Amino acid sequence: MEGDRPGVMDDRFLVEQSAQRNPNAFKILVLRYQRMVFFYLKNFAFPEQVREDLAQETFLRAYRNIARFDPEKGAAFSTWLMTIARNLALNERAKAGFRKERAGGLRDEEAGGTEKGPQEVLELRRLKARVQEALSRLPEKFHTAVVLSYFDDLSLEEIAQIEDCPVGTIKSRVFRGKQFLRQILERENVL
């Protein structure tokens, strides 16, 4: 939970300070959530530079509009932030026509530890690329639910807030998205 970590300022306080234009408070929020935003955007089929631009725009928009964020409405700051990232990514995909394309590659640190041999690293990279490609072929509503659930480790309730739909719908989308993903991977002899 936010704020349950000893010695760590909770998000609500940081949001209040950021709304008063305390740049240090917002900097802490950026440091706290940049990894989550980058990882989420990585699951879209954008080149690395586009992902970086979208992440930067996500935080810029959050900073500009932080006074509008109301934790009393029940959403966590992370959920609000991920909604901004999601909307920007969907707009970019629609604008640029990235629906089925796969650009960019896996970074070396994603390929595994240094204890693996070159052949194992190459195989792991190929497997990750094939899973990412299969994931990008899921219909949008299933893609988003699976990515937020498994890769960003958000709860079903948080995903429902981001997607603005009931939790039951998200459960169904995650389940069906996993089924579709498995079918794609089996059809391509990845599993």
Percent of residues in β-strands = under 5%
Number of strands: 0
| Distance separating the two termini | 35 Å
CATH topology group of the largest domain: Rna Polymerase Sigma Factor, Chain: A
Structural domains: how many: 2
Instruction: Report the uncertain regions.
Output: 1-7, 98-114
Examine the secondary-structure arrangement and name the CATH architecture of the largest domain.
Orthogonal Bundle
Helix content: 55-70%
Number of helices: 8
Largest sheet: none
Class from secondary-structure proportions: mainly alpha
Spell the H/E element sequence.
Answer: HHHHHHHH
What is the CATH C-level name of the largest domain? Mainly Alpha
General shape? globular
Query: CATH H level of the largest domain: which superfamily?
Result: RNA polymerase sigma factor, region 2, helix turn helix motif
Provide the residue-averaged pLDDT. Answer: 80
Radius of gyration: 18 Å
Secondary-structure topology with pairs:
Blueprint: H1 11-19, H2 23-42, H3 48-65, H4 77-96, H5 118-136, H6 140-151, H7 156-163, H8 167-187
Helix pairs in contact: 1-2, 2-3, 2-4, 3-4, 4-7, 6-8, 7-8
Description:
There is one protein chain. The relative contact order is 0.10. The chain has 2 domains: 6-100, RNA polymerase sigma factor, region 2, helix turn helix motif (Rna Polymerase Sigma Factor, Chain: A, Orthogonal Bundle); 137-191, Arc Repressor Mutant, subunit A, CATH 1.10.10. It is globular, with a radius of gyration of 18 Å. The longest helix has 21 residues, at 167-187. α6 (140-151) crosses α8. It is 66% helix and 0% strand. By secondary structure, it is an all-alpha fold. Residues 1-7 and 98-114 have low confidence and may be disordered. It contains 8 helices and no strands.
